[in-house]
Sequence to fold (503 residues):
Amino acid sequence: MQSELFNLTDEAWIPVLFHDGKNRMVSLREVFSGDESIADLALNPYERIAVMRLLICIAMAALDDEKHLENEETWLQCLPDLSGLALEYLSKWHDRFNLYGEHAFLQPDDLTADEEAKRPRDKLFLHLSSGNNDTLYDHRALEDNREISDAHLAVGLLTYLNFSAGGQHSKCFWSGKETSVSVSAAPCREKSMLHTMILGEHLLKTIWLNLITKAMSDTLPQKQRGRPFWEFENLSRSQVEGKELEKTLLGRLVPLSRVIKLTRGERQCMLGEGLKYDSLSLKYDSLSMAREVMGTKILKKDAKGIDTESYVSASTSKQPWRDLQTILNYSKRYSALTLQHLNSIPNQEYFMIWCGGLVADQAKDEAVVEWSAKLSTGLLDDRVLESYQNGIEFADQVARRLNQAAEIYAGECKGFDPKKKNFKERQNLTSAYAIPAERWYWNELSIRQPMLVDIAEENDNRKMSDWRELVRTMAREAYEYACPKMTGRQIMAYVKGLETLNN
Fold:
């Protein structure tokens, strides 16, 4: 039976999948009980990221930095201690995991707001419409708001703190001071970053595999470990503002980017600006302000040709396997930090990796993406990764020729010269052919991606030529699929485009 305060330690609120295929909700205590039958979280990508960050934060707060997380050697030995220490920690801070009431979980006690400034609790869910904002999956806001269970509300609270958009926001009074109506985006949303984590055979091992050692955090701008926000007495401004808590590792893993107050039974809540979180620096040669531990950092040129820091982005048009060389190349300390664990585990032939994120355009949420795979540890070798990347680059070259062929086809069918059109005009005029061709091409290659992994590991040039021939074949079939040849004009267009593709 649920308590009035709905304590996250005791109540079932985290959706998980069991090894027997069943799924149900479990409590924090059950997650850390050591039950190896719990296989994984059963959440959409951005909810998975938010909840996993909480679980990692709890585990790191429960473990001792020097004894358990000083370096790879101490980390390797801490798995047997994780369950017991985490349960002790949850017992110690039990009352701080209440979703409602005094000292509620990640909610300031002294947050107030006028009735007209309160917002529907729907706002906490990125996939639900609220007010005049529709979403990709939900096109109508309900006037009296939805009935939302306590369990879903807990997940929504965490997700909102990690992924809420910047822009205009409602106004509250936090410790008597008015919150700003103009807010910045939460840290996990930056540049639509692709988040990467290692998956274990069961959920507790997944948490362990993604713990961050002191040696790792020393490479971050936010190298100080800090404390989780639920350990502070009441989250008043005087306790958390101006203390640089948002610049610490644990203060960023579970961020206080918004101040929120939930009241049981009410369908509205208070929402205001919380702490402001730093992002990557603009120039690659300047000191980074902050770095997300699950993101893969890259350098790319901006519109002026200046090298800038960014993240590998979640994308609906480019699946993560095409960025695998960048994601796994932790030797340059650009990849997700915990991937360094992969070379520390003895006698390991394979590992599981998960990548996912939210595709967003400023305040607009466009899509969620995720990808997972079982990969050989041989891929962690620089030579193998380079060979793999050569195969990807060849596929990219053929994809560009496929796009050119679709442009020529469209030009012949519609009567325009692609060379005389700018990029956006070409895109608009050729999208009916180029987009289906590109989707077909990359979807077919994604099915055959394990073949490229095997070839890269064997370092066989003869077999790499087999990959190149496969890529050319998939491009021709994609062109055939997207560019019909039923009329005389279409046949002439098809032949001209095919000449470009075959060159």
Summary: The chain has a mean pLDDT of 90. The longest strand covers residues 364-376. The radius of gyration is 25 Å. Residues 382-414 form the longest helix (33 residues).
